[in-house]
Amino acid sequence: MQDVTLKQIAEILNISITTASKALKDYKDVSPKTRIAVRNLAEKLNFKPNTTALNLRNKESKTIGLLIPEIVHHFFSNVINGVIVEAEEHGYLVIVLISNDSYELEKRQVELLLDKRVDGILVSLAGSTINIDHIKQILKKEVHLVMLDKISTEINCSKIIIDDRKAAFDATEKLILSGCRKIAHFKGPDGPKTSLDRYLGYKDALEKHKLDSGLNLVYTSKNVSLEDGRQYMKQALREHPDLDAIFTITDLVAAGALQYCQENKIAVPGKISIMGFSNWFVSGLMTPSLSTVDQPGYEMGRVAFLQLLKEIELKKTKESICPETIVIPTSVVLRQSTKN
Amino acid sequence: MQDVTLKQIAEILNISITTASKALKDYKDVSPKTRIAVRNLAEKLNFKPNTTALNLRNKESKTIGLLIPEIVHHFFSNVINGVIVEAEEHGYLVIVLISNDSYELEKRQVELLLDKRVDGILVSLAGSTINIDHIKQILKKEVHLVMLDKISTEINCSKIIIDDRKAAFDATEKLILSGCRKIAHFKGPDGPKTSLDRYLGYKDALEKHKLDSGLNLVYTSKNVSLEDGRQYMKQALREHPDLDAIFTITDLVAAGALQYCQENKIAVPGKISIMGFSNWFVSGLMTPSLSTVDQPGYEMGRVAFLQLLKEIELKKTKESICPETIVIPTSVVLRQSTKN
DNA sequence: TTGAACACCGAAACCGTTTTAGTTTCATAA
DNA sequence: TTATGAAACTAAAACGGTTTCGGTGTTCAA
């Protein structure tokens, strides 16, 4: 079953393709009789304008690209979901690409999207990305770009982020307000800005409450893995037996720490409180359930798409675009792994 | 910065568009001199053929659609990942759409994909889908279709599935071999075939080992939620205090059951063994970690794409397509929630 | 009787590429 | 000198729509 074309409709009705096209688009110079005939036939044959032909003529594809580091990950799954739902709502489809945290892949995938002539691109950078010429390439081609979560300050485009520093501050302060006095931090690797900001937020809270002992209570997790969590929990407790709380770069590490405590019969939160980050799905299911910072992926995805859309539409009216940085609020989720 | 076109190249070199095109595609009727000139210029200007124009002419988009019920879900995240990675490997891009288990959305999304003229569609049905005319529509339009996991037997297309019955049998038998004698099953809702098959597999195992007591040890979970797990665990233990194992439709329900046991100081697996299904990411993190059936989403995604690709290529050579049903093997993952 | 106004329609250009079916040019064979 | 053929090139059609512009025919007022 071939697709129905305007040509076929025109032939059947013995009119020109032009007239058929106009009849369907409410042009004034088509007689009511013709208009109705065309509409009826189009309806009957289930005519759908060929999207590709339209794309070619209009130089727009109603398609955007979404490039993220991971997908099997609660936060990013939510991001994708938010983007896709909001895009669909506005008549856009989303091509999803996963860099698997590899710079090489990310670079190639940007090319794929540009070749595909998408109307815009949403990017969350791979952890290993240092050189960002490929991202600059997007702007050079005048393709709209919005970055989210893992951004680069060197790129002049709109950005959707959370305030990692404030979020970390809030989380740490909650620990302090619950009575904790000696709080360790399992931080992320040195590269990403999020790692640094969360660390700084932690420091801010300690300082505000005059708890910055001068001791080294910060451990840098290289792999940001479950195993890292266990490892550093063990090490931290050995080095500081009177530790009463930890705040981790992400829930996975917190989960590892929690496992270590349970295996070694260390009471959580009796002896030690544990605070994670991101609010993975798993956090609510563990026993005790994990207190954490909710990082609203779905909302970030939604807002990122809307910002991209705004810039796409602005461009059409030839207005100038002023990149915005939108900060999505976070909240601390208190569960059983901390006292209250 | 506008995109470079063949026309521009032709004008600069004072040749026809035709020759420029041919020079780039190794036609024999282009002089070496011209060929080199064109190639050099194309390289210099970073010429990339306009994908949309190619799509229009070749009637193929090198794009497929992937339609799934959920994304914030370990299994489906893996499916998406498998599809995307394998597709990219073969020069295809993937448009992801999420039905959110809604029949209405699914129906509309199929239309979107057909309108978009994708080369093929991968579908995992929404839970609420009963009428499948929209899926038949895909075949009617002669768009390639492969279904995975949540399939419909009424559709004549290739299918990628697991053997739910055998997987459930294996899981239940593991419980039996570990010494369990009174095993309950928390089954899924009555609609989906997977629910039924897992139930039948459970029955098979009991029968084989002559443990089918005639007692009603089967509980039907309506929402397949954490709460359901807790609920039925409570009910089952009240009705059958000597229960020594449960096998659940999915890990989430098992997690709920596990939570109930922990809150009520019921030893797992000392008093009762718990076996889930799907191997969600969370299963490995719980304490005790959950034994389960591994449902290889990534592999299923990969294979589904490859099957779709095979049919797309077969069609090009006008060969006839014979729908295949591919069963991906599963394995039981024994962790701490069962004895060994 | 002319011309203005209006209603209706369609040819053609356009988007960017590929491919068919020629055309031109030049050297060689008859 | 003329036919033959190969080499190198190109016009035009095709993919499927949209839109501009021009044309035709009718009606009505001057």
Q: Summed up, what is this model?
A:
Chain A is 45% helix and 15% strand.
Fold and architecture overview:
Chain A is of the alpha/beta class and 340 residues long. Helix content of chain A is 45%, strand content 15%. Chain A has helices at residues 6-13, 17-24, 32-45, 51-58, 74-89, 103-115, 133-140, 164-177, 193-208, 226-239, 251-263, 297-316, and strands at residues 63-68, 93-98, 120-123, 144-148, 158-162, 183-187, 218-220, 245-248, 273-275, 292-294, 325-328, 331-333. Chain A has a six-stranded parallel β-sheet with strand order 2-1-3-4-5-11. The interface between A and B is large, with 47 and 47 residues. The structure holds a DNA duplex (30 and 30 nucleotides).
- The tally of helices of chain A reads 12
* Low-confidence spans of chain A: none
Q: Assess the beta-strand content of chain A as a share of residues.
A: 15-25%
Secondary-structure element pattern of chain A, one letter each: HHHHEHEHEHEEHEHEHEHEEHEE
Walk me through the topology:
The structure is a homodimer of 340-residue chains.
Chain A: H1 6-13, H2 17-24, H3 32-45, H4 51-58, E1 63-68, H5 74-89, E2 93-98, H6 103-115, E3 120-123, H7 133-140, E4 144-148, E5 158-162, H8 164-177, E6 183-187, H9 193-208, E7 218-220, H10 226-239, E8 245-248, H11 251-263, E9 273-275, E10 292-294, H12 297-316, E11 325-328, E12 331-333
Parallel strand pairs in A: 1-2, 1-3, 3-4, 4-5, 5-11, 6-7, 6-8, 8-9
Antiparallel strand pairs in A: 10-12
Chain A binds a DNA duplex (30 and 30 nucleotides) through helix 2 and helix 4.
